[in-house]
């Protein structure tokens, strides 16, 4: 597969930077819903100037809004608690998970809007085919809307669907109005179903224990992670792609419209307090084959991304961005970005995070309070910024698929 990233083996000496400041961990959990509270207002005055291609980094107590090119800090917004951020599906807004529900942030004109999609434990946000889909774990409610309405200051309303039982789930609306949404309860998650625009069931797959996460491949193939492989919906039917191990959990995936191969994590120890895998999974949605690739370094659930040509990207704990040709199943390059790090036990604790948009990979380095921008064509850092506090999540505006 031809990629936009030049094949290279950069000097390993750049990877021997000092270990990032230890990240403390207390407690644990598997939910991705937020415990964030309501906003308390800005801690820096707004200039009214528009922020170009805004990037949003969370910290303990709020949000940093950065210029996507220069990484200059444009605004700081106070918001207590653990905040989660996701692209809203346009070039202006970001969804912030709070205790109220999903709240809309205008990242281009930095300010929190009054638009809130209420509900306990807001979870996954998915963008596809010009629609944004919210899944609220605490209620099982799915909300689909056209994000274009946000630019008019409106709260876009659209299709809604309520799952049979609340659970940590995900949903995506496909072209033609089909809705794929997960099945489960608070105790057990089993698979997914597909509904037409009138909520009539078209297909169902219930052989995906612990279903988690979603990624889209070329040809509108949707993959959901399972504890024993992946469940793929394509061409009107579900297909199970089995993991090579009895317990082979794929809980986080990254897809690309430019490739039929999905990138996933891969864990094999159901009893581990915090498994730190070195292998990733490559799932071919055309051949229904799954292969494993050992990177020689561990990574975290915030390490996976895709480049503009379909390249698979993994931010390793060795501090490098590993570039993978997904069709060949080979590492084609390594880009040193941050110092070596270790994944904390508590999933809510900060760790280096990857966010890819277009030809730029953004990488945070919490131990040094920094964020970096890397050009994926040249493999060079184009900007870095040191922020007042250590960051946690990293996202930004992005139209998605």
What does this structure look like?
With 401 residues, this protein is mainly beta. Helices cover 0% and strands 44% of the residues. The strands form eight sheets. It has a five-stranded mixed sheet with strand order 1-29-28-27-26, with no helix packed on it. The radius of gyration is 20 Å and the shape is globular.
Please estimate the helix content: under 10%
Distance between the termini: 20 Å
Strand content: 35-45%
Count of separate DSSP helical elements: 0
| Mean pLDDT across residues | 89
Strand order of the largest sheet: 1-29-28-27-26
Given the helix and strand composition, which structural class is it? mainly beta
List low-confidence stretches. Answer: 1-47
- The value of Rg in angstroms is 20 Å
Break the fold down into its secondary structure elements and pairings.
Elements: E1 8-9, E2 41-42, E3 55-59, E4 62-66, E5 73-78, E6 84-87, E7 93-97, E8 101-106, E9 111-118, E10 122-128, E11 131-136, E12 141-145, E13 160-162, E14 171-173, E15 179-184, E16 189-195, E17 201-205, E18 212-217, E19 221-226, E20 229-234, E21 237-242, E22 253-254, E23 261-264, E24 279-284, E25 289-294, E26 304-306, E27 312-315, E28 320-325, E29 330-336, E30 354-357, E31 360-365, E32 370-375, E33 380-386, E34 391-396
Parallel strand pairs: 1-29
Antiparallel strand pairs: 2-5, 3-4, 3-34, 4-5, 6-7, 7-8, 8-9, 10-11, 11-12, 12-13, 14-15, 15-16, 16-17, 18-19, 19-20, 20-21, 22-23, 23-24, 24-25, 26-27, 27-28, 28-29, 30-31, 31-32, 32-33
């Amino acid at each position: 597969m031809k990629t936009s990233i030049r094949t290279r083996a950069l000097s390993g000496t750049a990877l021997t930077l000092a270990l990032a400041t230890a990240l403390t961990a207390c407690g644990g959990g598997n939910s991705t819903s937020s415990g964030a509270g309501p906003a308390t207002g800005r801690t820096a005055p707004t200039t009214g100037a528009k922020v170009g291609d805004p990037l949003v980094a969370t910290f303990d107590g709020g949000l940093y809004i950065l210029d996507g090119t220069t990484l200059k800090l444009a605004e700081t917004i106070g918001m207590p608690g653990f905040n989660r951020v996701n692209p809203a599906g346009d070039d202006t807004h970001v969804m912030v998970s709070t205790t109220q529900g999903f709240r809309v942030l205008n990242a281009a004109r930095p300010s929190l809007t009054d638009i809130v999609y209420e509900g306990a434990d807001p979870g996954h946000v998915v963008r596809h085919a010009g629609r944004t889909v919210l899944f609220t774990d605490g209620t099982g409610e799915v909300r689909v809307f056209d994000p274009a309405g946000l630019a008019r200051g409106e709260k876009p309303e659209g299709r809604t669907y309520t799952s049979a039982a609340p659970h940590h789930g995900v949903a995506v609306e496909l072209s033609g109005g089909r809705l794929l949404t997960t099945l489960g309860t608070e105790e057990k998650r089993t698979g997914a179903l597909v509904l037409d625009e009138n909520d009539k069931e078209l297909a169902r797959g219930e052989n995906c224990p612990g279903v988690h996460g979603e990624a889209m491949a070329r040809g509108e193939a949707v993959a959901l992670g399972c504890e024993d492989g992946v469940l793929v919906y394509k061409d009107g039917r579900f297909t199970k792609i089995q993991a090579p191990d009895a317990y082979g959990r794929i809980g986080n995936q990254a897809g690309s419209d430019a490739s039929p191969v999905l990138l996933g994590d891969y864990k094999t120890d159901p009893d581990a307090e915090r498994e730190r895998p070195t292998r990733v999974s490559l799932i071919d949605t055309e051949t229904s084959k799954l292969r494993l690739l050992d990177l020689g370094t561990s990574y975290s659930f915030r390490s996976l991304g895709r480049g503009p040509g379909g390249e698979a990207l993994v931010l390793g704990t060795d501090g490098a961005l590993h570039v993978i040709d997904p069709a060949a199943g080979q590492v084609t390059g390594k880009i040193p970005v941050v110092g070596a790090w270790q994944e904390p036990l508590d999933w809510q604790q900060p760790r280096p995070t990857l966010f890819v948009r277009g030809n730029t990979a953004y990488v945070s380095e919490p131990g040094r309070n920094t964020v970096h921008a890397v050009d994926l064509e040249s493999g060079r850092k184009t900007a870095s910024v040191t922020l007042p506090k250590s960051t946690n999540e990293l996202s930004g505006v992005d139209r998605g698929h």
